[in-house]
Amino acid sequence: MDNLGIISKYGYKCVLISGLIFILSWIFDIWFWLFAALFIATLWVYRNPERLPQSEEAKAILSPIDGIVDSIKKCNYNGRSYSQIVIRNRIFDSGVLRAVCDVDELIIKKRSGLNIHSSDSNLNLLSNRVTIMSKKEDIIIRISTSAFSSKIYLENFTHMKSGRRIGFLKDGKVAVLMPLNTRISYSKGDKIKACDVIGYIDE
Fold first, then answer.
1. Residue 1: what pLDDT?
2. pLDDT for position 104
3. CA-based Rg of the chain, rounded to a whole angstrom?
4. How many CA atoms lie within 13 A of 17 on its CB side?
5. 153 secondary structure, DSSP code
6. What does the pLDDT look like over 92-144, one tens digit per residue?
7. What is the CB neighbour count within 10 angstroms for residue 26?
8. Which of 146, 147, 150, 159 has CB 3.0 to 4.6 Å from 118, enough for a Cys bridge?
9. Distance between CA atoms of 176 and 30, rounded to whole angstroms?
10. What DSSP designation does 150 have?
11. Which residues of 139-174 are buried (b: 16+ CB within 10 A; e: fewer)?
12. 36 CB-near residues (< 8 Å, 6+ apart)
């Protein structure tokens, strides 16, 4: 199913329910403004903005989601060292997940966990998490849910095309692990949008 409408397909159910409640509140004149605000907020949470990659260079790494840069550091994964940038997506940021670069032969691992706030230091250890890895490229994406989101929505894909929609996260954190020779363009605390260039991999 295509996911190109102004509202993400993953929000259709919530938008429909809040819309029906809004219509009933209008008909019966019960808390009209409250349910109108709820309906508008639901539309905003599940908005599906169009984004074009800020760069189409092969060595460019794009942001997978809107949010705030939570941390930038070196880390180890499966015995290898990476540069890691973590983006904290808040409930009113656009939750559309996008591919950070062209990647083939993907491995996707899912793990169930707890719903805890995205600012909690134990988020990566205890939350629901999906890890997307490439067999060839040194690129790893780790997606963790938060207190307001119990599910990570992913498209059915076996490869990623830079900037394309790959899923939806209502609230949580997304970590991008890149080669150590990646020149990162952001600092902790910076606002970032999906498809902005995080950095470039040096030759």
1. 43
2. 83
3. 18
4. 4
5. E
6. 999 999 999 998 888 888 887 665 554 555 555 566 889 999 877 789 999 99
7. 12
8. 146
9. 46
10. -
11. bbbbbbbbbebeebbbbebeebebbbbbbbbbbbbb
12. 22, 25, 26
CA distances from 99 to 29, 47, 141 (A): 45, 18, 9
| Residues 6 or more apart whose Cβ sits within 8 Å of residue 92 | 44, 45
> What is the mean pLDDT of the segment spanning 74-90?
93
Name the amino acid, one letter, at 52.
L
The tokens describing 126, both together, are 């205890």
Which pair of tokens denotes residue 181? 């020779």
**Assigned token pair, 41:** 């907020």
Q: In terms of residues, how long is the chain?
A: 203
Structure tokens at 51: 């984004």
Nearest to 63 by CA among 182, 170, 195: 195
Distance between CA atoms of residues 86 and 172, nearest Å: 10
pTM for the complete prediction?
0.88
Mean of the pLDDT values across residues 46-69?
94
Provide the total of helices (H) and of strands (E) in the chain, helices listed first. Answer: 3, 13
The kind and range of the H/E element at 123 are helix 123-126
Residue 182 has pLDDT above 60, yes or no: yes
SS3 147: coil
